[in-house]
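anyone else get weird line breaks when pasting these?? whatever heres mine. first is seq + tokens for prot A
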Amino acid sequence: MSSPRSETIATTLTDAPPASAIRSAFAAKAAAAREFASAPVPISPGARAARAAKALAVLATSAAKAAVIARAARPAAVAKAEIAFAPTAALPAEPASSTRAGGALKRIVRDLNSRARVIALVSGKGGVGKTNLAVNMAIALAAAGRRVLLVDADLGLANVDLVLGQRPRGDLGHVLSGKMALGDIIQEGPAGIRWIPGASHMPALLKIGERRREALLERLTSLETQHDYVLIDAPAGIGQGVLSLARQADELVLVTTPEPTAMMDAYALLKAAAASGPDAIGCVRLVVNMIGHRKQADEVHRRIAQTAARFLRLDVGMLGYVFCDGHVGRAVQKQQPLLLAYPHSQAAWCMKRLGGALMEGREAPLASRFAFFRRLTGLFAAGQTI
């Protein structure tokens, strides 16, 4: 009997991207490299302060407009909801199309009531420590009392199980094939986190019957309402699946190291994700991993942030950094999360700060990006894959 990991690897080998997609990826990386090489020189403190003041003014104006629109739209939305859910015993039967519309409105109202903040951890290349950060940041959030769901969305190279030291009972592929229920594959991890292996099988949702697909989407969407945070450990690189995840998440945590290749690939990922404009993706914040000193992290952030601002009109914030620490490798060898194996190490201290920085940011998810799993399935229906 083959293991879940061997089945996933076999799927990877049979679903290789076409040559045209590979050529497009190389072209995107080449364009990103030219822009990154021409990064602007550091701006003066006065100019930086002026830009910050202007950005704050724009944000304040946008927030005020949004509040006015929300207040004006609220009575109408409430009235629609009351009409949709009012008893209809004394009224003639409504047509099927109207019933479907009411069901859609009901799902929207439910999804907006309480939904997790979906954060995708992405990187331009492998080997930068993204999965290790995802696991330990999830534990840091859970230790602070947050309800956390970690989704392993890597394709073929999923390593969340190795970092946690837990063997998955199955993955989403087994659920889609009818061999297991969704509740059977959700793993209970340390510090109270929960995690789902094999989210790379999401495109197969389109191959099952409509009733089964709708039931599973309802279950996946209900998971969003049962947690405060959903952390997505996305595949490395700039493949179409990574871009799909990046564009649907509330926030991106971009992981890189001070190596020039990692920095350039991180910017290439941003450029590809924001190809249709800066509004195509949510808030972007940077984590610089494996640094030797604090100034190194500041320099990496400066280069990426200034290049993204100049060519992409995209604001890249700084979430934090993690020092290069031998305890990280020793924890991986022990197959234990760093925060549990070496909680007093320097890297563990940095990862706890990253969890705190996430909680200090925007707590509420973007209202325009409800039902993450349902939106993702809509992209697969349009021909995009993980």
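and prot B, same format (seq, then tokens)
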Amino acid sequence: MAAIGGSAIPPLLHVEALLHARGYAPAEAFANGMVNGLVAEGGDVVAHAVEHSADLAAFPRDAYAITKRRLRAADVARVTALLPEELVG
């Protein structure tokens, strides 16, 4: 799990968030760069996601997929290698 979280959590917060299992309020997670945005309590999460991802629809789908795969390849390989150990505990 730490291998997955480590790719989304800024390195300066790895010990605090991953090793010490510190929880973060939504606004604090946003301020620390752990999430890309917030939706107000009771807000429409789906509408927010659609609105903020509309610009992605303009990208060529294949090029975006290839770039994303290459960007995350090292993390995916690391997580895949650690999976058997994580499942055993």
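btw re prot B: The CA atoms of residues 29 and 69 lie 25 Å apart. The chain has a mean pLDDT of 89.
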